[in-house]
Write a structure and sequence with these properties.
- It is globular and about 40 Å long.
- The strands form two sheets. Strands 1, 4, 5, 8, 9 and 10 form a six-stranded mixed sheet that branches. The chain has a five-stranded mixed sheet with strand order 3-2-11-6-7.
- The longest helix is centred in the N-terminal third of the chain and has 6 residues, at about 60-65.
- The protein has helices at about 5-10, 60-65, 95, and strands spanning about 25, 45-50, 55-60, 75, 80-95, 105-110, 115-120, 130-135, 140, 150, 165-170.
- It contains three helices and eleven strands, in the order H-E-E-E-H-E-E-H-E-E-E-E-E-E.
- The chain is about 5% helix and about 30% strand.
- Bound molecules: ligand MTE and molybdenum atom.
- The ligand Nc1nc2c(c(=O)[nH]1)N[C@H]1C(S)=C(S)[C@@H](COP(=O)(O)O)O[C@H]1N2 binds near residues 29, 30, 31 and 161.
- The site of molybdenum atom (MO) has 6 residues, from loops.
Length: about 200
């Protein structure tokens, strides 16, 4: 076997290192849904945070719209290896929704209309890291991409960004969601390539 320099074999860094390991860039917006697209009218939509102490905080669509809105731009990374740069959203920061929520819980289980669930540490939803978004690229979020509203938590693999989001349950103990209980990584950091359990 000859000596092959790592520098020769290695790929050039993509777009100044914005592409996590094993990912490639796409310019379209793939749709990945584990089941049919639920249709929820805005006037029937609600979002709730349930605390570990049994308190519920609810927002109607009108109440969500009345909250301060942010327009995050983020790179998103799907575990099936596509990444999309500079996606532009509009929605409400989870920091705003958690303002009046008293909790000592460390874990969050996000659930969606249609039954999808995904789990993450509560701290990954706070401090400007996550939003409930209802607009994408300047338009109302399409049903196939999670409209009326979805979670967007771009620093983790995109399966954590629950479409058709309905609520968040705060838990003292971690509880795996849909993909997390099917062999995917519990945390899902794309920069550490945490795709599957054991990665
Ligand atoms: N409710 C729900 N949310 C979901 C999913 C799903 O199947 N159901 N798929 C996840 C996965 S695997 C990915 S990659 C993204 C895909 O979002 P997109 O279809 O808007 O690209 O949504 C995530 N959120
Ligand atoms: Mo995904």
């Amino acid at each position: 076997m000859g000596i092959i320099s790592r520098g020769f074999r290695g790929r050039p860094r993509d777009d100044h290192g914005r592409l996590p390991p094993g990912q490639y860039q796409v310019h379209d917006f793939p749709v990945l849904s584990a089941g049919p697209t639920p249709r929820i009218e805005q006037d029937r939509w609600e979002f709730a945070i349930d605390t570990e102490a049994g308190q519920t905080h609810r927002w109607s669509w009108q109440e969500l719209m009345a909250l301060p809105q942010e327009s995050p731009t983020a790179d998103i990374h799907c575990v099936t290896k596509w990444s999309k740069f500079d996606t532009t959203w509009q929605g409400v920061s989870l920091d705003v929704l958690f303002e009046d929520v008293e909790t000592a819980a460390e874990y969050a289980l996000v659930h969606s209309y249609g039954g999808y669930t995904t789990n993450l540490p509560l701290e990954d939803l706070l401090d400007g890291k996550a939003w409930i978004c209802h607009r994408f690229d300047g338009e109302e979020l399409e049903p196939q991409h999670g409209g009326p509203a979805r979670l967007v938590v771009p620093h983790l693999y995109f399966w954590k960004s629950a479409k058709w989001v309905r609520g968040i349950r705060l838990l003292n103990e971690d509880w795996p969601g849909f993909w997390e209980s099917a062999g995917y990584h519990n945390y899902g950091d794309p920069w550490r390539e945490q795709r599957y359990e054991g990665d």
